[in-house]
Design a protein that fits this description.
alpha/beta, 18 helices, Aldehyde Dehydrogenase, Chain A, domain 1, Aldehyde Dehydrogenase, Chain A, domain 2, ten-stranded mixed sheet, six-stranded mixed sheet, globular, 25 strands
C-alpha cells in the first residue's frame, strides 16, 4: 500500500506509512466503539442500508478505509467511489477487506470519473453518503439530493497564529512541517501564518524561517531522504494564480519548480499577504505558505474566524491567558496549541471541521460517536428508561465535561462538546407530545437555544409542554423564510416536506431527523458539536505542569 501511494499519488514513504497506520487504527477503533452502543439495553440499532463512500486523492488509504469500516461496523453495505487518480490504492485495500472475510456483496468498488457522481449520489438505494473532498462537491451533492444524509469533511483555509509570547524556533518547526508536508496537499495544511508585528519585523525570525523552508529536501519519493514530493497535478489553476504577487506582497522564498512539467514545487513563502486577498481567502493545494502581519492576538482571531472555513487552526504562544482566549474564541473543529496542525490521530484527535469545512451533524471522524451516524436507533419496545434521568446522567458523565482520554505525557488531547447556538424544532402532525418534551428537555440541558415551529391550528398546539422556548405558529412557507436564522433544524421524523431539506441544504444547515429516544447518551448528540484540542505543553522535556481540562 505504501509503495502504491508513492507511485500513484506521489506520497513520500513516511507519509504513506502514517496512512496505513491510520487505516489500521480506524479498523480497530470503530468496531470497538460500536460495541458500547450495541450493548445498551434500552435501544435498538439497525443499519441504514447502503452507504456510499466518496474518498479523496490526498489521503487515498486512511480516509476511505475509515468510512468503509464505520459503515460496515453498523451492519451496512458499502459502495466505495475513490478518487479516480488514486483508484489503484483503493483496489489494493479492497482486496485486503475481501481476503479478510468481508464479502463482496457487502463492499463494492466503483471506478469512474466525476461525470457519474450525480448518478451515484441521487440513487434511491443509497441511504447515507460519506464524502471527503471539496466544498463545491459537497454543495453539489446536498443540493442535487438534499434528503439523503451527508457526512462530509470538506475544505480548509488553516491558519497558525504566532504571538510575541511564542517560542519562535519551536513555532518555525511546527509551521514548516504543517505547511509543506505531503507537498502542502493536506486539507489540514497550514496555509496562513499570522505573526504579531514585533516577531514579523524581527530579521532573525525571517532568516530562520527561510532556512527551515529551504533546507527541506525536495524531489522524487523514491529517494527516501526527500520530505517534499510531487503534487498530484500540474494543472492547479488556483495555486498558479496564487504564485503571482498582489499589492504589498513579496517573496520570502520565491517559487521554484524542480521539473519541466511543474509537478515538483519547492517550499514557497509569500510575505506581506493582506487580509481579504486571493492568497488569504482561497484554499490552495500546494507547498505555499502566506505570512500575514497582525498587531495582536485578538486581531488574528478575528481574521481567522472571518474565513469561510473552520477545519484546523493553531496557536504558538506560551502565555496562558492568550491560550485561553484563543481556545475559547476560535471557531474550528481541531485546535492545536504549540504543535503542528496536521497529523490527527484516531481517538487522540478526532477530526472534523466547522462552518464550510463540514457538512452533517458535527460528529467527528475517529471519535467515539462517529459510528452512530450510519445506523437507525429507536427505543427498545417496553423500555422503562426514565428519559430525564438518562439525559441528566449522560450530560454529567459524557457531554458536560472536557476530558483527555489518552493521558499522554507532555501532550494533552481534549475532546469537548459545544452547544448548538440555536435550533428550531419543526413539529410534524405525527409527532407525540412525549417526543417534543424530550427535545425541549435535551436542548435546555445542553444549553442550546430552542424555538418550536408548528403549523397554525395544529391539534398539538394546546398540548405543547410548558417551557421557556418561544413557540411560533407558522405555515410551511413562513417557516422556510426563517430557516437561515438557525444553526440546526430538529424534527422527530425524516418524513418531512422535501422543501425543508432543500432550503436547509441551500443555507448549509443540518437537519437532525432521528426520532428522539430515551437514552441520553444517544439523544444528546443532536444538540451539540464536537471540538478537539491538542496542546503540546512540555518544554525541553519538562512535563510537570499538566494543564487542566477545560
Amino acid at each position: 500500500l505504501i509503495g502504491c501511494m508513492c507511485a500513484i499519488t506521489g506520497k513520500t514513504v513516511v507519509e504513506g506509512d502514517v496512512e496505513v497506520s491510520e487505516a489500521i487504527d480506524y479498523a480497530r477503533f470503530y468496531t470497538t466503539t460500536m460495541k458500547q452502543f450495541v450493548g445498551m439495553e434500552d435501544i435498538e440499532i439497525a443499519p441504514k442500508g447502503t452507504v456510499l463512500v466518496i474518498s479523496p486523492w490526498n489521503f487515498p488509504c486512511a480516509i476511505p478505509v475509515g468510512g468503509i469500516v464505520a459503515a460496515l461496523a453498523g451492519g451496512n453495505t458499502v459502495i466505495l467511489k475513490p478518487a479516480t487518480v488514486a483508484a489503484p490504492v483503493a483496489w489494493l485495500f479492497a482486496q485486503a477487506f475481501w481476503e479478510a472475510g468481508v464479502p463482496k456483496e457487502a463492499l463494492q468498488v466503483i471506478i469512474t470519473d466525476r461525470s457519474a457522481l450525480g448518478v451515484l449520489t441521487t440513487a434511491p438505494e443509497i441511504k447515507h453518503i460519506i464524502l471527503t473532498g471539496g466544498t463545491d462537491t459537497a454543495r453539489y451533492i446536498v443540493q442535487s439530493n438534499p434528503i439523503t444524509p451527508l457526512s462530509a469533511e470538506t475544505g480548509g483555509k488553516n491558519a497558525m497564529i504566532l504571538t510575541a509570547s511564542g517560542d519562535r524556533d519551536h513555532a518555525i518547526m511546527n509551521v514548516v512541517a504543517s505547511a509543506f508536508g505531503n507537498a502542502g496537499q493536506k486539507c489540514s495544511a497550514c496555509s496562513l501564518l499570522l505573526v504579531e508585528r514585533s516577531v514579523y519585523e524581527d530579521h532573525n525570525f525571517r532568516d530562520k524561517l527561510i532556512d527551515a523552508a529551504t533546507s527541506l529536501k525536495v524531489g522524487s519519493v523514491w529517494n527516501a531522504g526527500n520530505v517534499v514530493g510531487p503534487m498530484i497535478t500540474s494543472r492547479n489553476e488556483k495555486l498558479l494564480q496564487a504564485l503571482t504577487l498582489e499589492p504589498g506582497e513579496s517573496w520570502l522564498v520565491p517559487p521554484r519548480f524542480l521539473d519541466e512539467k511543474q509537478y515538483v514545487l519547492a517550499p514557497t513563502i509569500k510575505w506581506g499577504v493582506q487580509p481579504g486577498s486571493y492568497s488569504f481567502n482561497t484554499e490552495l493545494f500546494g507547498p505555499l505558505l502566506s505570512v500575514v502581519c497582525i498587531e495582536n492576538l485578538q486581531e488574528g482571531i478575528d481574521l481567522v474566524n472571518g474565513l469561510e472555513y473552520g477545519l484546523t487552526s493553531g496557536l504558538q504562544s506560551l502565555d496562558e491567558a492568550e491560550q485561553k482566549l484563543w481556545r475559547d474564541s476560535l471557531v474550528a473543529g481541531n485546535l492545536y496549541i504549540n504543535r503542528g496542525i496536521t497529523g490527527a490521530i484516531v481517538n487522540r484527535q478526532p477530526f472534523g471541521g466547522m462552518k464550510l469545512s463540514a457538512f452533517g451533524g458535527g460528529v467527528k471522524a475517529g471519535g467515539p460517536n462517529y459510528g452512530l451516524c450510519f445506523v437507525n436507533i429507536t427505543d427498545r419496545p417496553g423500555s422503562t428508561t426514565d428519559y430525564k434521568r438518562s439525559y441528566e446522567e449522560a450530560w454529567r458523565e459524557e457531554f458536560a465535561r472536557s476530558r483527555d482520554i489518552n493521558q499522554l505525557y507532555g501532550e494533552q488531547n481534549v475532546l469537548r462538546y459545544l452547544p448548538i447556538k440555536n435550533m428550531v424544532l419543526r413539529v410534524s402532525p405525527t409527532d407525540t407530545i412525549e417526543q417534543i418534551e424530550r427535545v425541549v428537555y435535551a436542548a435546555r440541558l445542553c444549553g442550546t437555544e430552542l424555538v418550536i415551529s408548528i403549523e397554525p391550528d395544529s391539534e398539538l398546539f394546546d398540548r405543547l409542554p410548558l417551557s421557556d422556548c418561544p413557540v411560533y405558529e407558522e405555515t410551511l412557507e413562513e417557516f422556510l423564510d426563517t430557516i437561515e436564522n438557525y444553526e440546526r433544524i430538529r424534527t422527530c421524523t425524516p418524513d418531512i416536506n422535501p422543501l425543508i431539506y432543500k432550503e436547509a441544504a441551500y443555507y448549509h444547515i443540518y437537519v437532525a431527523t432521528a426520532p428522539p429516544v430515551k437514552n441520553g447518551r444517544v439523544e444528546l448528540i443532536h444538540y451539540i458539536k464536537e471540538q478537539s484540542i491538542s496542546f503540546e505543553y512540555h518544554r525541553y522535556g519538562s512535563i510537570s505542569d499538566v494543564p487542566a481540562c477545560e
